[in-house]
Every structure is written in C-alpha cells, then in structure tokens.
Write a structure and sequence with these properties.
This protein is α+β, with helices and mostly antiparallel strands. It folds into 2 domains: about 200 residues, no CATH class; about 70 residues, Trypsin Inhibitor V, Chain A. Helices cover about 20% and strands about 30% of the residues. The strands form 5 sheets. It has a 7-stranded mixed sheet. Strand 8 and strand 9 form a beta hairpin. Helix 1 packs across helix 2.
C-alpha cells in the first residue's frame, strides 16, 4: 500500500476544497488506524469507518464531508440485460439498495437514513455517507449498529478504498473486489467491503449481533449488477453528502430533486400530512431512496404540507 502521506495528499489534492487542518489530521489518523492489523479486523475497515471525513469542513466539532460524484455508468451489455427489463426481486425478507446499477440486498428492517451522530442507540441503516468524524462527549457509550455505507469509487477516496481490496472474481460479467471480513468484540460485530469499480460503486458493510457472520455473508453474496434499463433512486442530495431523512429541509429536497433529474428520473412532489415536520420538508420518496427503478421512471417526493 502506498505511504500515508502520499495517500492523504492524493485525497486532498483531488477532492478537497477549503480543508481545515484539523480535518487533514483526522484523515491521517484514520489511515494510520487502517494500517494497524489486530483485534480480528481487516486493515481496510477502520478507513471505511471514517469514510467520508475526506474533503471535510470542520464546523462545531463535526467534520462535514463533501459529496463524491455518483457512479452511474451503464455502458456495455451483460448477460442479465437480455430480454425485458424487469425490476429484480430480492431474497425473502430483504430489499435491494445501491448506487447506479450496483446493488446489495439488506434486511427489510434496515432503513435509508441520514447519519445518526452520537446517538447511544442507533438503528440498522443504509447511508451514502455516514463515516464522518464527530466529537461525541459520550463516545464510549455509543453502541455499534449494523449499516451499509455506499461509496463512489470514481473519486480519489473511493479508489483508495478499492486499493485495499483484492480481486474476487466477477458479478454479472463485471470484475468484483472484496475486503477481508473481520469479526470480534464483546457485542459480536463484523465488518467487510465489496466493490464493482467498473461501475463506480463500493459498499462498506457492518453487521452486529448474534447472527452477524451470517448476515454479512448474505449481504456480500447478494451483490448484483442491474440489467441495462434499470438504475437506483439517488441516495444523496447532489454535491453535498447527505442522505435525506424525515424532516430534511426544503433546500435539501430541491437538491435531491436535482440529483434525481441528473440520474434521468422524473421526480414530482406531493404534499402529505406529517405531524411535527416543517412545511416543505422531506417526508419520503416513493420508490424509496437507493432502490431499483426503471430509467426515466416517475419518482414521488413527499413533502410536509
């Protein structure tokens, strides 16, 4: 692996704008932890755990990262693209989620949400960018939670993540890369990663609990490339790395709609009743963010009345 200074320099040279010195220090610390093996964890995983701190801007103790561009290339034809374009059915009890044409199946209980900073109890979730560094006053009491982080491998950080993986055959005719799966801790916790760099997408996966190993294996095995003619609803609001959730501002709704249009989809807004949510704020997307849809499909963005 390349030296730390070279890796950090590349990340900031290619992706950063207005980088605070504190942010640079935290990135280097993350990479150093990533080079330290032990405790049953892959050297890739601590880097993924601080994923989108790269190109961050420090504000009030929170490193707010910048968005990585969407990897939505759908060039070429693979075997799965033959015949009618049908939305795929995920294994029972799961649903597909991803970026562009690359998806994995996660349990139905895992919801797409914004990062859950400093919450002592966190829900299992799917996020475009939950790996920011936060100075939590109660860090020791923040419990681990199952999650999938979606990473764009067309940008410097994503390429660096893929550099830590090894070739692992192919999926639907596209080269696949994987990181080692590491499990450990008093609360059983497993971490792993998988990528399809040719289509610009990687997943950093964390599973927690008694069935962590089996859940990890199921997610890794579920990786697939959607047929031509299908894509996924964008998981983020455009340039800035934020996965909208209930109550996200009207400005974030506008950014999300712009991202949907850039992905070739047809978003329309619909007002709905939602107690405690400010008028115009985000309520939900139908179909849900990150889920497979047909190219050009109409997407309903629900906002509070």
């Amino acid at each position: 692996m390349r030296g730390l200074e070279e890796a950090v320099g590349e990340v900031f040279r290619r992706d950063a704008r207005d980088i605070d010195a504190f942010a640079r220090t935290r990135v280097r610390a993350a990479l150093e932890r990533g080079n330290t093996s032990g405790r049953g964890r892959s050297s890739l995983l601590p880097i993924v755990g601080v994923a989108l701190v790269v190109a961050g801007v420090v504000s009030g103790g929170l490193v707010a990262p910048r968005l990585f561009g969407h990897g939505t290339s759908n060039g070429g034809v693979d075997a799965s693209s033959q015949g009618p374009t049908m939305l795929p059915s995920a294994p029972s009890g799961t649903h597909y989620v991803g970026l562009g044409r690359v998806v994995v199946a996660v349990p139905d209980s895992w919801k797409t949400t914004a990062p859950q900073y400093c919450r002592v109890t966190r829900d299992a979730a799917v996020m475009f960018d939950s790996g920011v560094v936060v100075n939590c006053p109660n860090q020791a009491s923040v419990a681990p939670a199952s999650s999938v982080l979606v990473i764009d491998t067309t940008r410097a950080y994503g390429r660096h993540v893929v550099d830590q993986m090894q070739p692992a055959g192919a999926v639907d005719g596209r080269p696949k890369f994987e990181g080692s799966v590491g499990c450990g801790g008093k609360i059983r916790e497993c971490s792993g990663a998988v990528a399809v760099p040719a289509l610009g997408t990687a997943f950093a996966i964390n599973t927690v609990g008694a069935g962590a190993e089996g859940e990890m294996s199921g997610i890794l095995k579920s990786l697939r490339v959607l047929p031509n003619g299908l894509t996924t609803v964008p998981l983020s609001t455009g340039r800035f790395p934020y996965t909208p959730t209930l109550g996200s501002s009207a400005r974030e709704v506008d950014l999300l709609i712009a991202a949907m249009r850039s992905a070739g989809l047809k978003p329309v807004t619909e007002t709905v009743a939602s107690d405690g949510v400010e008028s115009g704020a985000f309520v939900a997307s139908v179909p849900a963010l990150g889920t497979p849809v047909r190219n050009g499909q109409r997407i309903t963005v629900e906002v509070a009345e």
